[in-house]
């Protein structure tokens, strides 16, 4: 990265640089995290998959919500983006009962304040997609919260807008993915505000890092599902008996290769482009 650019932040996956007062450069690395711990082993081309898929979705959801993307760079992992005032919420939409939502349901019969019918099983499709916000933790784990608490963080009117747009984005993408043999079980968004106070979709959209992608032809409610996301890595790490605190475990070659293959397959199914074509010309995903 050119030394002239000021480094302004490091996330689990992305590095942020200041281009000027109005623009940031986001660089998606090949780092992977599980249980909020960055692992020492990288997944080759993972950052390019995240960047390409996000750009693909940003180009196709502009009618629903403005987004932060200004330009996709030729390295396939860097994007020039607008600076925003980020909302202090992780905006999760769940179409299926899985992950922390399944754990909450088993314990309380509800997910983030949404009381659900009794007798649902793991991975079951919900009657309607649910907006289930969580805190954006600076350290440790995000915490699922109910609508009242989310309204305290961003205001009731803004929360109504966020919920409406998040659900609309999910329904649009879930329909597209279903036509390509992928179930989007749940997904996470981050939103910010521009200088005019307009809501803007930021960070990433419908990637294997921010979503659960399941192969539709293998979907069978009643337990965990095969996936095209980082669940493959989570399962490996859990099988080790790791206590989910740093440092994370090294990943063996077969887990690295299997994870890369899953990410690339998700990219190719959802975009309808070959990953090699993207590497040759990243802008192919914008058309």
Please describe what this structure looks like.
The protein is an alpha+beta fold. The chain has seven helices and 16 strands. It has helices at 46-60, 99-108, 147-154, 156-179, 231-239, 253-271, 275-280, and strands spanning 6-10, 14-18, 23-28, 33-34, 37-38, 66-67, 69-72, 78-82, 85-86, 89-96, 110-111, 114-115, 125-135, 182-193, 199-202, 211-215. Strands 6, 9, 10, 13, 14, 15 and 16 form a seven-stranded mixed beta sheet that branches. Strands 1-2-3-8-7 form a five-stranded antiparallel beta sheet. A hairpin with a 3-residue loop joins β1 (6-10) and β2 (14-18). The longest helix has 24 residues, at 156-179. The protein starts with 5 loop residues before the first strand and ends in a 7-residue tail after the last helix.
What descriptive keywords fit this protein?
seven-stranded mixed beta sheet; five-stranded antiparallel beta sheet; 27% strand; single chain; alpha+beta; 287 residues
The total beta strand count reads 16
What spatial form do the alpha-carbon principal axes imply? globular
Q: Can you give the helix content as a percent range?
A: 25-40%
State the major sheet.
7 strands, mixed
How are the SSEs ordered, and which strands pair?
Layout: E1 6-10, E2 14-18, E3 23-28, E4 33-34, E5 37-38, H1 46-60, E6 66-67, E7 69-72, E8 78-82, E9 85-86, E10 89-96, H2 99-108, E11 110-111, E12 114-115, E13 125-135, H3 147-154, H4 156-179, E14 182-193, E15 199-202, E16 211-215, H5 231-239, H6 253-271, H7 275-280
Parallel strand pairs: 6-15
Antiparallel strand pairs: 1-2, 2-3, 3-8, 4-5, 7-8, 9-14, 10-13, 10-14, 11-12, 14-15, 14-16
